[in-house]
Design brief:
Elements: E1 2-10, H1 15-22, E2 24-29, H2 37-48, E3 58-66, H3 74-88, E4 95-101, E5 105-113, H4 131-147
Helix pairs in contact: 3-4
């Protein structure tokens, strides 16, 4: 498996609208993923309004997995990305995950709200994937494929 992680700051949460049209909602935290797109964006905007002077309110993390050795199902993808989010320590943030699974690769788009409270935010200086994030992702992937049933093997 090969992985690529890219991180970007977002000025608002309108990008969720584009992701929602092109990809499948996978999971979220502090947001109802069954709500309308507008409702999801409003939920994110309400949280970010705790820091009204903040110019970049969100973080977009794009994770691409390619050269997968095992074809796994959506539930396994959910477990992989949950382990990744927990591993980087952002599991308590508001976020939504979108999935695009193709034959040769899988894309996860995660939108995080930087605003935790009116006094706490995620610093943009932390943007840029470090080797430890790749280690966390690789371990999450290998843990899941070791559990996956043999019917999922290519």
């Amino acid at each position: 498996m090969r992985a690529r992680i890219k991180e970007f700051a977002l000025a608002d949460f309108q990008y969720i609208r584009q992701l929602d049209k092109a990809k499948k909602r996978l999971l979220g935290n502090m947001v109802n993923i069954l709500a309308s797109t507008t409702g999801i964006i409003k939920t994110f905007s309400k949280q970010s309004s705790l820091r009204p002077l903040l110019k970049k309110v969100g973080i977009h993390v794009k994770v691409v997995l390619c050269r997968l050795k095992v074809i796994i199902d959506e539930q396994c993808y959910e477990q992989i990305i949950q382990k990744y989010i927990e591993g980087i320590g952002w599991h308590d943030l508001q976020y939504i995950v979108f999935l695009a699974a193709r034959r040769n690769y899988v894309e996860f788009d995660i939108i995080f709200n930087r605003v935790i409270s009116n006094t706490q935010i995620i610093d943009l200086k932390c943007l840029g994937a470090q080797w430890i994030q790749y280690e966390i992702l690789y371990k999450a992937y290998t843990d899941i494929i070791n559990i996956a049933e043999s019917k999922f093997y290519v």
